[in-house]
Amino acid sequence: MTAGATILSVIASASAHRTSRATEAESTAPARRRTVFRAFGATAAATTIVAVDLLAHRCLPEGISALLPVLTFTAGIMVSRRLIGREHPEGSAIDNAKSRIDRAAVELESLSIGNRRPMAPDGAMAAEDRNSRNEDGEVLSFHAAAPTNAGVVYASEELGKYHLFTEILSKQMVSVSELSEEAAKNILKNLTQIDSQNSALVSFIQQSGSNEQVAKVVALIESQMKGCQVLLKRFVDKQQADARDGAAQRSRVVAETQGVLNLLENVDGIARQTRMLSFNVSIEAAHAGKFGRGFSVIADEIRKLASEVQELSKGVRERVETLTRTITKDLQQESEQREQAEHDAVADIAETLSALSDNLMTLVAHQRDTLSKVESENESIAHPVMDAMGNIQFQDIVRQQLKQLVCMAEMVSDHMQTVGAALKEPQGDFSATSLSQKLDDLFGSYVMERQCTTHLSAQGHAIATDAVASIELF
Amino acid sequence: MKPVLLVDDSPTMLASISGVLKKAGFTCETAGDGQAAIDKVNRGVSPCLVITDYHMPGMHGVDLISKLRRVASTRFVPMLVLTTDSQQEKRTAARAAGATGWLVKPVDAAALLQVIRQLVPGGAA
């Protein structure tokens, strides 16, 4: 839509210029016609620059950027129709427009001649040209009768209304500028917020995972593990001491038991001697005959008691020997087994502590890797965020270009009003600066290289490639 | 650390450039026009660098540089013009007025920081 409108505008401009050139070729063509068509042509050219500039920067909605060229072209067509006073349905729209503009030129010429002086049959000026001209032959003022022709009046009125569109266009551009500024501010605000949150997160991770913090935690855990190992060693030492005490106690019990066995030996000896004594008493009782019978009975009883003592001693010995064996073998074996079990348990605990220490170191190393990765990722996020912040400068550039375009539109509007007002006057003053001159002034007012290249490109000129340095340190 | 004084009539530009500089570790003072910048300096703001726009209401950037060159605290401070204007005659005038450099918008953030670090060594990480 926008491209099409721009093309039509360019064609209208070319057509107007062509018509103007064609009429200039005729020595009898009045200057007023040339002036009017130059105005149309230059207006179309200026409009084209506005449209191309807007298109080049894509800074306006398509409808808005299309507005100016479409309006200009439509106004041209309408003016042509009124001037010609008839329709040309045949042919394409562009051919019609060209045809109407050409006819408008002829009509305008005949009108102006009709109003001011008679026209010769061959179209040449029949009377003296009373218009005042400058050195280049351009008309400065018309010496014309009152603009009684409806076409001229209409054209003048239509040109006078052009400023309404310009005002709308200006307000729309200001609105776009404000909108883009608001959007840029929001983008910056969001970027700053993202950056701030990212920095806070990284700072937290750095703080919680910093070397100092990790070193503190590791030192604390290592200290606690060392404490555990000390406790474990103390426990082992205590167990070994207890085992030694147990062995000593068992030795003492065995020694005491041996003493009991020795006592039992003595008891056995006494029992054996008692039996020998009872035998001797029995023998003496036999020698004493009937007087010794009582002693014989006593001797038997004593022998029985001695035998019972020997049996009792034997039972005690067996019990004591069993006890000794239990103490020296079973308890020792049980103690050794317990010690072995404890030793194994302690070894397991030591191994677990060692594995725990290894795991801790792995965890710390992993944490350091994670921290390093987070820092690296943060760095890779920080650069695009910073670039995006810097790229917001585009809004200021767009703002300035829109401001320039508003000035340009107002300049065209002012000129339209001047031309319209001059058309109304019997002796219209066309001494105001031409749009061609205004285009040159506009080019001189550019400060951006891009504006200059866009302007030249729209005018079909070659563009120099020797761009100035964007950064220059003196 | 001394701040960078940013002068521009566009709030967006001030926010954009100060955002970049703050992210790089600099502190910033901002002013919306030349007079506001001079007022800040007179109130005791002592910048390590001045970055100013050229086209501003009231006073353009090169005028501002001329005036700041006459203030003791900013006499030897590097001053950059950051503008959309790329006209050579204005660059020449800026150089004559005491500008340190001329940067045409838009300037890439990394390139801007490189220039600033060159002018203010040790200004920020």
Provide a descriptive summary of the structure in words.
The complex is a heterodimer of chains A (474) and B (125). The two termini of chain A are 47 Å apart. Chain A has helices spanning 2-25, 31-57, 62-84, 93-116, 150-160, 162-208, 211-287, 293-391, 393-424, 435-445, 449-458, and strands at 132-133, 139-141, 471-473. A two-stranded antiparallel sheet of chain A has the order 1-2. Residues 1-31, 54-94, 108-130 and 141-145 of chain A have low confidence and may be disordered. Chain A has two domains: 2-192 and 397-458, no CATH class; 209-387, Orthogonal Bundle (Helix Hairpins). Chain A is mainly alpha-helical and 474 residues long. In chain A, helix 1 runs parallel beside helix 3. With 125 residues, chain B is of the alpha/beta class. Chain B contains five helices and five strands. Chain B has helices at 11-23, 34-42, 61-69, 88-97, 109-119, and strands at residues 4-7, 28-31, 49-52, 79-83, 101-104. In chain B, strands 2-1-3-4-5 form a five-stranded parallel sheet, sandwiched between helices. In chain B, helix 3 links the parallel strand 3 and strand 4 (79-83). In chain B, helix 2 (34-42) runs parallel beside helix 3 (61-69) and helix 3 (61-69) runs parallel beside helix 4. Chain B is globular. The mean pLDDT of chain B is 91.
Q: What is the compact description of this entry?
A:
The complex is a heterodimer of chains A (474) and B (125). With 474 residues, chain A is an all-alpha fold. Helices cover 81% and strands 2% of the residues of chain A.
